[in-house]
Amino acid sequence: MMKTTSILTICILSALPAVGCMSFGQQDPTPPPTSFSPVSQVSYEEEVQRGQSPDEAPPSSDRSWWDPTGVGQRALEVTGHNGQNKSLAKQLFAKGEALYEEGLEVEGAAREKKMLEAAGYFQRAALYQPGTAIEEDSLMYAGECFFFIDHYADATRQYDNLIKKHPNTKHLDVIDVRRFKLARYWLDRYTKDRPWAMQPNFTDEQMPTFDSFGNAIKLFDLIRLDDPTGDLADDATLAAANAHFREANFETADRFYTDLRQNFPTSEHQFNAHYLGVVTKMKVYQGPAYDGKPLEDAEKLLTRMKRQFPDKTQENIEVVEKLDYDIRAAKAQRLWYMASFYDQRSDYAGARHYYKKIVQQFPSSNMATTAKDRLAELEGRPDSPTPPGEFLYSWLDRRKDLPQASATPIENIATQPDRETDRR
């Protein structure tokens, strides 16, 4: 069994360098205007027992006398049966850190080779010290190795794994910036290439395997969920909303704009969230024949925007007035639709009600003039329409041919049992 496991492990590990070894020469995406600190360098020195000089410290190795090739140890790592070994974890981390530093100084294929090898050491180091600072830094360095050679999908998996195991990691700010940058880059590529919904990607290491748009939105969501008080949480919410707006997913965009207004009240994007929220609600509104709640919500939100941001409203007075005009026109059209509906049914009471509302609420509109003319034409007409075939109702009323109930009071009816009842 051990021999079979060792052979299988050799095959798996030999295939790893071949995966993602292609470099496409594309530049890193433009970072957002946010300052951040790079990953701090960490060196874990070997522990020395009391009374022992550093030169006398026993060397640590990932190979033992019973496994000189290291294949057995790799098999335990792959299957998750390796034990904790702090000394070995430090040694693996030191090797990975050295390769990482060398990789930053070179370019092209040489950098990719060193970074992939360094990522392997960091991943192995994390296995031997779960729940410790060594694991935290190892996972972060592994993600950075993949990031700097443009293996973006692999980098995001390492960042996700790090936050899953260390939710309050000290690297959270850097991860937020990395995620934001990658999400914007994937959205730009999606807008440019427009791949099919289920078109797989097996060649470009910069892009996810499926659904680049969905994965970009997921990164924005992870920024908001993993670090809701971070500097980029509100930026990620606005970016996700704008992405859905560009794709005409107006209901989803409206939810993101609403989330930004409610959960980030001190955000610098509040005015944009209000304005774009009004526009989105007008897009969600489908017309006078459908639900009018989006139109009502848009009017309330526009009123609140004018009250909360008077200066910015004045700066953008033209677009704000255009929105106000569109909302009033939609409301007038909705009243006219209702008046026409009742008018066509000859339900003149309902028609008069809505025509009068048009005249009262929109006196300066052309609809008000037409509504006044129609009200004059309806003068003297009955409120309710005459039922069709009314002359047939009396002929069809056959109630007089039916047997009538007795008018005898109930108390005059005999209550004593008759002979038939006694016999039964």
Automatic annotation (TrEMBL):
Entry keyword Signal: yes
Stored InterPro entries: BamD-like (IPR039565), TPR-like_helical_dom_sf (IPR011990), TPR_rpt (IPR019734)
Domain of life: Bacteria
Outer membrane lipoprotein BamD-like domain: residues covered: 212-371
Region entry Disordered, spans: 26-69, 403-424
Cited Gene3D superfamilies: Tetratricopeptide repeat domain
Keywords: Signal
Signal peptide segment: 1-20
Record's compositionally biased regions (Polar residues): 405-415
Record's protein name: Outer membrane lipoprotein BamD-like domain-containing protein
Protein source organism: Blastopirellula marina
